[in-house]
Prior knowledge:
The protein is of the alpha/beta class. It folds into two domains: 3-147, Glutaredoxin; 167-329, Up-down Bundle (Glutathione S-transferase Yfyf (Class Pi), Chain A, domain 2), CATH 1.20.1050. It is 44% helix and 10% strand. It has twelve helices and nine strands. It has helices spanning 3-8, 26-34, 80-91, 107-113, 138-147, 185-205, 209-215, 227-251, 259-277, 288-298, 304-313, 316-329, and strands at residues 20-21, 43-44, 55-57, 70-75, 97-100, 121-126, 131-136, 167-168, 174-175. The strands form three sheets. The protein has a five-stranded mixed sheet. A two-stranded antiparallel sheet has the order 1-2.
Amino acid sequence: MFRYARVLGSAARSRVRQSRPAALHPSAALAASVVSFPLCVVACETVAPSATKPAIVQALPEGLDIRTCKVTLYQFESCPFCRKARAVLDLCNVPYDVVEVNPLTKSETKGFADDYKKVPIVVVEDPITNTSYQIRDSKIIIGAVIAASPGVAVASNNQSTRLPHSVTLNDETALDAKAYTDLSIDEAWIKWIEGYLLQLVVVNIYGTMSESMETFDYLLTHKDFGWVAKQASYWAGSIVMNQVARARLRKYKHIQGRHRPAFFEACNDLGSAAVAAGGFLGGSRPSPADLNAYGVIRSLEGTKSLREAISGDASPEFKKWYENMNAVVGESKANAKIGTTKRGSQ
């Protein structure tokens, strides 16, 4: 999901039907008859599949190894939520194709997701059963990909990890200890990431017209779009998102005039908590909270905001956490690299 999609097109809210237990995948049934091993039991929520539309699921069938499937990620290059999806696919060594969605027409997803105007969407095609699935929402994608990647070591709810520091954007958005009541460590950090860190990213990379244009520079070099589509998307995106950021700065009174220092302080909070816990929010291994944060930060690739954070305006602990995440996520597993597409001024 990405705010740009909401602004340029009316967002449709998809309703997922009541969950039902997923059937055992044939490959898992065969393996179970030979050797006994623990399997993660997951529920597969399905909107009636058709011959042309992949079934909408929140989890893949039990026993299906996503690394044996054809996987396609539908994304916006600068979308933080899409970067979360890419991070978990890379971490789990899942080969995948990348389809850049035109932010104005969304023609690339209309054929199978005409009820859904957001990205990312991950489509998984199982060659054994000849069945395809689509997973929507970055948090759901992270959980589904991890569950369908046997052997991948991901931590969760490390009890030595502290909660985020108390922060506010305005009087209505206080994130303090009360806000995290009854939440796990991972859930608390994810709430902070989406409710605070992500908002700071938006107002920083789109807050001035020059930075908004820098963020959308990639559209001008994207190989899949024609000249008219590139120019239309570039200018519409730059102008609209700059207006969105300015509106948020008017709304978020507690960071007015200091949204860049507030972003660096948030990076410091993230980095110091992770390093103190063992290198990641998950301790010695990344957790879903790390992947959510990393996706948001990676969406700043090539921007002035990230360059300044890495060069020293944020803490050494943040830089260490970011380097740790780069190392464990590794190189992109995308089959078709973006190639000549460039992000910002690098």
